[in-house]
Amino acid sequence: MRVALITGISGSGKSIAINVLEDDGFYCIDNLPVRFLSDVITSLNQAGHNSVAVSIDARSGGSVADLREIVTGLGEMGHEVKVIFLNARTETLLQRYSETRRRHPLSMRGAPEKSPEQTLIEAIERERELMSVIEDIGIPLDTSSLHPNVLRQWIRDVVEAPHAPLTLLFASFGYKHGVPLDADLVFDARCLPNPYYTSELRPLTGLDEPVAQFLREIPSVRRLIDHIAGFLDAWLPMYLQENRSYLTVAIGCTGGQHRSVYCVEELARRFRKTEQVTVRHRSLTHRPIAG
Q1: I need a surface site. Which of 91, 95, 112, 284 has the fewest CB within 10 A?
Q2: Max Cα separation, the chain?
């Protein structure tokens, strides 16, 4: 089993690390007390999980010092264990807590005659002292000046986690029903010849071969599909760098029945060769098609 142990100073990015590993297929547990770690790993291994990420912080108290021995034991059991120790400068942590308005896990409650800022600084320093006993067993990462996306990529590199494939969602829609709110990219196919005005094609949809044949023979339809495909080929790497899990490409026509449906099907067919693709025809599910 691959085991990634995310630990370090609160506010340094442990939640980001756990979330990115969960996106990449790890079974993730947040804030697990150290004393339960071996039993949990054994149980998950028996249940068939092969990639597990666990976040451990100062709330384990003095038992955090036992992590060194537990990591050694997990290695002797044959597990591949990597410990990542996240840290950040105190001034950075103060700024992050100020922005998020979260309470530090070791903050004193009801401390008389102490300002919240002083209490937070004391909590950070107490945590540094408590966690210093395991700082040397992990791979240290200082997140003080890191953009979250850079930290995500660093976590993947350290754990050697494969990037979850980006799912391309191609969606057709009808403008008369409104532009879908979840669309990342929107392309307008209303400029193309409309099969609706051919009586025998009117009751059909872009999923039907007569409509597909009609549109397939029109040069402007082929050009539009080629241009959208070229745009996606050029810019998909940039979206992948932003750690996106989904990219919704919406193509609309007047009713969402003919042109947009055909274009979506053609683009999905092309990109299935290299990408993970999902198709959704919004207007076709909103109303029955006559005929």
Answers
A1: 112
A2: 83
